[in-house]
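Much of our argument rests on the idea that a fold can be written as discrete symbols. Part of our work consisted of pairing the sequence of a single chain with a tokenised description of its backbone. We regard such an encoding as a compact summary of how the chain folds. The amino acid sequence and the backbone structure tokens for this protein are reproduced below.
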Amino acid sequence: MKIYTKKGDKGETSLIGGVRVSKTDTRIEAYGTVDELNSVIGVIRDSAKDRQAEETLVSIQNILFTVGSELASAPGSKMKLPEVEVSDIELLETEMDKMNEDLPDLKNFILPGGDLAASHCHVARCVCRRAERRAVALAQVAEVDEKIIKYLNRLSDYLFTLARFYTHQHGGVETPWKTRG
């Protein structure tokens, strides 16, 4: 199988279901940003080497493929695709609760950073928020499963908590935001 097809050389691509759309289509922006997020999470996995978090991150990456496939599906497509489940959202909440047991209370806004793995988490959190905004924009013009938006919202919270967890686990320091004046 060749990777290149040359079908996208004129700025269009196919959705699941065969419909051709511009590569600037809101749907393409949404699932493309989810793909970018998935790649950044791969960087977190490779930089942190934490077995427990790695299992959760692999699970997240698999769910993000599900999210991407749902977003990449043309309206009315008859292809049966996996869906985001409520249990996927609950897993993120459970993992955050576990991590928060060992973290000091958050009393200030903190600057991104503190540890290399944590910094990657902060980048992923920002990409996740953008993916969420793109999914919300798509939901304004097409049907989007509300669990996708909930999942992305919760995932950004998870990535923030994971950043804090790595900072503390690796002996880093959280830097509080200091306003001028």
Notes: The mean pLDDT is 92.
